[in-house]
Amino acid sequence: MALDPFEPIVFGAEGAELVATVLPYGLTIHTIGTEEGEDFIGGPEHPRDHQTRGRAFLNPIIGRFANRLPVGKIDYTSASGHSGHLQLEEYRGPGVVLHGGAEGEKENQVDSIVQHGPFDRCYWQPLDTKESKFFCDAGYASTSNPTGKQSSLIFAIESPDGDSGFPGKLRVETLIALVPGSGSDSVMGKSAGKLLIRYRAALASDGSVEATPFNMTHHWGFNMSASNEQACKAENGTVTEQIIQMYPPPGKPLYHLDIDPAMLATGKMNVTTGEPETFSNPGSHHWDRKDGKRISDGMPANGYDDFYLWGPDASVPQADEISKIATEATKRMRVTSESAGRSVLFYSNQVGVQMYTAEGQPEHPADPAQSGGVMKQAHRKGGQPDSGNFKRSFTAIEFGGPHCGFLHDGLADMGGREEVLEKGQIYDNWVVCEAFRK
User: Fold this and answer.
1) Closest to 381 in 3D by CA, of 227, 235, 240
2) What InterPro entries does this protein's entry cite (predicted)?
3) Is pLDDT of 2 > 80?
4) How far is CA 139 from CA 110, 130, 289, 431, in A?
């Protein structure tokens, strides 16, 4: 990599008003907006804060295993009967390992494809299309030395056997692509463009490991009003008055994943239409009702940090083109600020989504050293004083498999079985984010 990993790479396309920027460090989504000065993504002003201010998980890729797992020795068995075990150390909570675990002692080299996880601390290498193992025939162009504005790029790392406590040498590639929008919606307005993030990975064919747990995604956080002066004032810079709607596949209910006091999945699920006291995080979780739900409506006392799942959908198209996979049948979630007239709509082949209202961030005004860095200038248009990234200043959205899914029989048919990657398989998960404005 002859690139500065903290220099944002610009993604855009002719005919699209949507523009996004990405950092090779952590493959971090740095900005998303539809016009000059607009940014839907929470996070620090300065790209290097992602490294120097600690792991606040402000929009990076996360893995090898997203969300939470228990610590210690974990035995697992794949769908074909291959068995193995993990040995995980505690990180970010008693008895818990979060988002791939703590940083290791090995220092990564900026220009090497071999990177030691967790994934948010890796330098992701842009590839020439012909160098890709998983996307060379997908129809997207990529270069190892991007300059100017890109419409698509492929990034890769190789994760060594035993990395972060997970067995098996892996090659991981992520495609990012941006295309024009697809018309208008009566609620959200005119489409400004679509951003695809697609993850593919495989175990090394010459390795001795036959199967390994794997579940990766992005931990990106959205605030649809923070860079609009009037809307930011109306919503006090927070996300609590924004509307979220989830769309499970036709005929499938939306479930809430039950968690224990350590926030580890118990293997139980509740339908989101239940009474507030029936949830492990008591409150209203009915995101699939008609027209969605305002975040503040029935919000739990400690906000939201919850996983919602609908399970596998066999009807999802097996295609590479964004127009063929981002369809009415695969839309899964929207986030809307009525006061700003801005929305994002997500499509995905993944089985569920974690939604987190930044409850772990400090109260406003937040110390930048304790909150991932100084909040972006673009998010202080409503008269917000200088601050770090404070509590409820963004909604983190993480499409993936249910955490602990492969450890519970009750979650096997809800995506847990697919969380153990076997040799010869190619992991293939994707999410498309479409931006709208009124």
Assistant:
1) 227
2) Aldose_1/G6P_1-epimerase, Gal_mutarotase_sf_dom, GH-type_carb-bd
3) no
4) 28, 11, 38, 17
Tens-place pLDDT, residues 123-167: 999 999 999 999 999 999 999 999 999 999 999 999 999 999 999
Buried b (16+ CB within 10 A) or exposed e, 379-405: bbbbebeebbbbbbbbbbbbbbbbbbb
Helix (H) or strand (E) holding 229: helix 229-234
Q: What is the pLDDT of residue 136?
A: 97
Nearest alpha carbon to residue 247 among 348, 124, 394, 110: 348
Which residues does 274 contact at the CB level (< 8 Å), separation at least 6? 256, 285
**Domain 9-437: assigned CATH number:** 2.70.98.10
Per DSSP (E only), the strands in 237-365 are 243-246, 255-259, 265-271, 293-294, 305-309, 331-337, 342-348, 352-356
Query: To which residue do tokens 């500065």 refer?
Result: 4
Number of Cβ atoms within 10 Å of the Cβ of 426: 13
The torsion region of residue 278 among left (phi > 0), alpha (psi -120 to 50) and beta comes to alpha
Q: What is the pTM of this model?
A: 0.97
The CA distance from 36 to 414, in Å, is 41
Peptide bond into 70 cis (omega under 30): no
The distance from CA 207 to its chain's CA centroid, rounded to whole angstroms, is 29
pLDDT, tens digit (0-9, with 9 covering 90-100), for 7-54:
999 999 999 999 999 999 999 999 999 999 999 999 999 999 999 999
Q: What is the DSSP letter of 41?
A: B
